[in-house]
Design goal:
The protein has 193 residues and is of the alpha/beta class. 37% of the residues lie in helices and 16% in strands. Strands 1, 2, 3, 4, 5 and 6 form a six-stranded parallel sheet that branches. Helix 1 packs across helix 5. The structure holds flavin mononucleotide (FMN). The site of flavin mononucleotide (FMN) has 17 residues, from helix 1 and strand 4. Pfam families: FMN_red.
C-alpha cells in the first residue's frame, strides 16, 4: 500500500504564558504526530514576537521582520492547528492579532484546512472556538467540524500538570489524536490525495 504523503501543519497557540494548557495541547499534538500518526508533521509557530497590527509598520509592501518570519512559516504549510484559549467569551487578542497579520497583503489562510482545540474554564473554551470560526469564515479557512475538543482544564480528573502545562489525561490525549486524524483526512481530501 502506498504511504500517505506528509502534510505540514502549523500549530498556533493563543496563550503566551509559560505554563499554558493550550500550549500543552500543542506539545502533545506534536508528540502524537511523531509517535502515532503516519504522514503528519506538526510544528509550533510562535506568535509572541508579533507587534500589534498597525498598517504604518508596512513599508513599501514589506512587513516588520518578525511578521515576515511568521508569514514565511504559515505560508508554507498544508493545514493549521489552533489551540485557542478563551478570554472573556472570545478568542485571545494575541491570536486575533496573529490571524490579522496573516491576512494582510496575500491572505495566507485562504483555502487552507484547520482544526481548533481549546482548554479553558467553564465551557472548555467553546465560545472562543465559535468566534474563531466566525473570523476564519471571511479568511476562507476550512475548519473540520468533528470531533470537537473542548478541555475543561479545572475539572477532575486533572487534565494538565499545573507546573508546566503538560497534558496528562489519557482520554483528552485520545480526543486530541482523533482531531489530528480528522484534520489529516480532511487535508488530504482537499488536496485530492
Ligand atoms: C483575561 C482573561 C479572561 C478569561 N476569560 C475566560 C472566559 O471567558 N472563559 C473561560 O473559560 N476562561 C477564561 N479565562 C480563564 C482561562 O481559560 C484560563 O486562564 C486558561 O488557563 C487560559 O489558557 P492557558 O492555560 O492556555 O493560558 C480567562 C483568563 C484571562 C486571563
Amino acid at each position: 500500500m502506498a504511504s500517505k504523503p506528509i502534510i505540514k501543519v502549523a500549530a498556533l497557540c493563543g496563550s503566551l504564558r509559560k505554563g499554558s494548557f493550550n500550549r500543552g495541547l500543542i506539545r502533545s499534538a506534536i508528540q502524537l504526530s511523531e509517535e502515532s500518526i503516519t504522514g503528519m508533521n506538526v510544528e509550533f509557530v510562535d506568535i509572541a514576537p508579533l507587534p500589534f497590527v498597525n498598517t504604518d509598520l508596512e513599508v513599501d509592501g514589506k512587513f516588520p521582520e518578525s511578521v515576515e518570519t511568521f508569514r514565511d512559516k504559515i505560508g508554507g504549510v498544508d493545514a493549521f492547528l489552533f489551540a485557542s484559549p478563551e478570554y472573556n467569551f472570545s478568542l485571545t487578542a494575541p491570536l486575533k492579532n496573529a490571524i490579522d497579520w496573516g491576512s494582510r497583503g496575500t491572505n495566507l489562510w485562504a483555502d487552507k484546512p484547520a482544526a481548533i482545540v481549546s482548554a479553558g474554564g467553564m465551557f472548555g473554551g467553546a465560545i472562543s472556538q465559535c468566534h474563531l470560526r466566525q473570523v476564519g469564515a471571511i479568511l476562507d479557512l476550512h475548519f473540520i467540524n468533528k470531533p470537537p475538543l473542548f478541555v475543561q482544564a479545572f475539572q477532575q480528573p486533572p487534565k494538565f500538570d499545573y507546573a508546566n502545562g503538560d497534558l496528562i489525561d489519557p482520554d483528552t490525549k485520545e480526543g486530541l489524536k482523533q482531531v489530528l486524524v480528522s484534520l489529516q483526512a480532511f487535508t488530504l481530501r482537499l488536496k485530492g490525495q
